Amino acid sequence: MKRWIACALLAVALAGCGHAGGGKKTVVFWQFWPSDTINPLIERFRAENPDLDVQVEQLTWQAGQEKIAAAVASGKVPDLVELGSTWFPAFAHQRALVDWTDSSAVLRDSLHLWDMASEDGRVYGLPWLGGTRALFYNKTLFARAGIDSSKGPETWPELLEDCKRINALGKGVNGYGANSGERYVLFKKFMPYGWSNGGTILSPDMKSVTFDSPQNVAALKFYLSLADVGRVDHQALIDQAFKQGNIGCVLTGAWLLKQIPADAPDLRYGVCMVPAPPGGKHLSFAGGEILSTFQKSANPSGAWRLARFLTRAANASVIAQDQKSVQPAAVIASDDAYYAAHPGEKLFLDQLGSSVAPPNHPEWGRMEAAIETAVEQAMYRKITPEQAITQAARELQAALNSPQAASPAATSPRAKG
Amino acid sequence: MRREGNLGLAGWVFLSPWLISFLVFGLYPIVASFVLSFREYSPLAPQASRFIGLANYAEALHDGTFWHALGNTLSFTFGTLPFTTAIALALAVCLDKAFPGRTIFRAGFFLPTVVSVVVLSIVFKALYSPEGPLSGVLQGLGVTPPRWLLDPHTALPSIMAMDVWAASGYYMVIFLAGLKSIPAELYESAALDGAGAWRRFVGITLPMLRPTFLFVLVVNTIRSLQIFTEVFVMTRGGPLDSTLTVVYYLYDQAFYRFRLGYASAVAYLLFAVTLAISLLQVRWLKLAGAKE
Fold first, then answer.
1. Do B238 and A182 touch (CB under 8 A)?
2. ipTM
3. Which residues of chain A are within 8 Å of residue B238 when distances are taken between CB atoms?
4. What's the 3-state SS for A251-302?
5. For residues B277 and A230, what is the distance between their CA atoms, to the nearest angstrom?
6. What percent of chain A has pLDDT over 90?
7. At what angle do helices B155-180 and B64-96 cross, to 10 degrees?
8. Which tops the pLDDT comparison, A415 or B121?
9. Which of A100, A135, B77, B271 could tie B224 with a disulfide, CB 3.0–4.6 Å?
10. Size of interface A-B (CB pairs under 8 A)
């Protein structure tokens, strides 16, 4: 008797693992935004599309890529996925994503950042949100150091001089916040100076390495001079020190626009474009979020409809305005009332327009790590700036030559969606 | 009458929760990753996977970064092992005797074990920050604080210090259990023979604890060689790869570079190192026991 009770209990437990189906067609959507932000949009989508239901799953930036890769390997993929731009090339290169080149042609003029969602001239997703870095400066410290605090530094000499004077204030105050000690961050803080100075990483066709240039060496020397009059630390701690009023200038993301009013409401600060070298430009790093669907997705047409809905200017703006760390990839009218009333966010929108996305190369992760390692070694005075740039270029060349960079196996046809 | 060992259906049913989870989440990944270690395999293109023999192993053995990560991992393991073991033993001996408030102390020292490593790591990251209390205290004493997690020379020792603090309580409990198994008569007769506290500790406690030592050493070594979470949360292998450990390296290869075959080979190389060290420890402690 006991045996039968045990079996019955097990059967009930196993039955509980089953999945109830039926009803509307479901779009499974994996994304990174908090439910408070994304759910109202999903509700609106459901109302507009009564034949579709959406099942939203929230991923974390720490484990998201792991989970998506595991899903692709197992074949149990979501219908629509939000991919970070640095992850995108590896997925696109392996032809794991559906080719949206033809279907997205009608959206060409209504969205920016297409490079981020393309590989080899084909489009594998819709650009949804963009993120960039701009210079935050502490107006109180500027005033204390006798600098005009009504505007931020516009050129390299101005930035360095301002940071020097603020650093001289002492008592735990630093001129600049320079990144170190963690991966996948320093690159985004150094390369804006390289790009602004005319430096590049790869040739446009991504066939050769162009990183070893006097422009990048000069940019690295400039970055090191900033680090000398600043504090070298992890991103979160630099942001924290800026909010505490202990750092003069820091190149960081728009997330501070949301954090400062909550954490340091009394902080007097300004935001400006990345300072330009003499005769150079104000270029920053461009990253972003791309909406893609997989070859093995169960509902690619539903995914396409949801992606189109989410990338509309009004809908992407909901996330941008709520989170502030990103800007819509959709073209925003220059007289948009919201941005007119929010100059900090407008500045980031403008900076995104003057930003460079890293090359969409399948070996990009290795390349980014190579540049970071070399720059960090120069920061710790292990090698000279010239050696650092040459060393990184050598590693970039090795990444270009590696088998992983070769064309993917032509076993998977390009599906149209 | 049912023979011993014959479980019957109900037995299997009651074993099934563990058995199924072991087969699915234990044995299957172990076997699958062994197979993968001989293949080139990207989770993004499983269809393009191919057998490449020992190429992954050869690549790892020729890869300077792998050796660097292994060096860091061994430094971490053998740098923490003596401290964790000694502190755990000292705590266990101190907290073995009855005194008021003993339970509070025991619970206090054990507490870090029940707190998530992620939480501990975040707390220690704040503790080690230039504005953190640790640097504040040193500055108050007129000492220039080190840059902790930001200096390639102090980053790994900083994580090691946290690990010793967090792990000692757990091994303390194991030593406490070991102490309980030592018959009280041994101490009584030694005391009658005039042996002092130190003599009793060296002559009775340490030899009688040998099986516990073996367990603590082997388990702690295996756990230390697998260090990952602390590095992931606190430094991501930086600065300048000074905290890059083997498991963090294989994680990076598997999930940022999508090289699951290569990462599996690295995992099996770590397994070989772990097995070798554990066997040496068992042999060494048994030899030490045989000599007495």
1. yes
2. 0.71
3. 180-183, 376
4. EEECHHHHHHHHHCCCCCEEEECCCECCCCCCCEEEEEEEEECECCCCCHHH
5. 45
6. 70
7. 40
8. B121
9. B77
10. 101
| Helix/strand/coil for A356 | strand
DSSP B25: I
Distance CA A187, CA A284 (A): 11
Which of B117, B122, B258, B259 to probe the A interface (max A CBs under 10 A)?
A: B258
| pLDDT for the residue numbered A1 | 47
Residues A3, B238: C-beta atoms closer than 8 Å: no
Question: What gap in Å lies between CA B218 and CA B243, rounded to an integer?
Answer: 23
User: Which candidate, A291, A120, A266, places its Cα nearest to that of A206?
Assistant: A120
> Do A258 and A324 meet the contact criterion of CB atoms below 8 Å apart?
yes
| Probe site for chain B from A7, A68, A72, A294 (most B CB atoms < 10 A) | A72
> Is the separation of the CB atoms in A293 and A312 below 8 Å?
no
A401, HSE (Cβ side, Cα atoms, 13 Å): 7
Residue A190: its pLDDT value, please? 96
3-state SS assignment for residue A29: strand
For residue B7, give the chain A residue with the closest CA: A3
Residue that the structure tokens 């105050």 belong to: A173
Place of tokens 């230039």: B130
Among A72-86, A247-261, B186-200, B278-292, the minimum mean pLDDT is found in: B278-292
The H or E element containing residue A138 is: strand A126-138
Name the pTM for this structure.
0.80
* pLDDT reported for residue B292: 56
Which among A285, A179, A308 is positioned nearest to A232, based on CA atoms?
A179
Structure tokens at B25: 């989440």
Rounded CA-CA distance B128/B125 in Å is 5
The backbone region for B158, taken as left when phi is positive above 0, alpha when psi lies in -120 to 50, beta otherwise, is alpha
Taking alpha carbons only, the member of A362, A359, A366 closest to residue A406 is A362
CA-nearest residue to A373 within chain B is B240
**E-assigned strands of B98-232?**
none
Best mean pLDDT range from A65-74, A343-352, B137-146: A343-352
What residues have CB less than 8 Å from A136, skipping those under 6 apart? Answer: A242, A249, A250, A251, A252, A256, A269, A270, A271
Q: Does any CB of chain B come closer than 8 Å to the CB of residue A402?
A: no
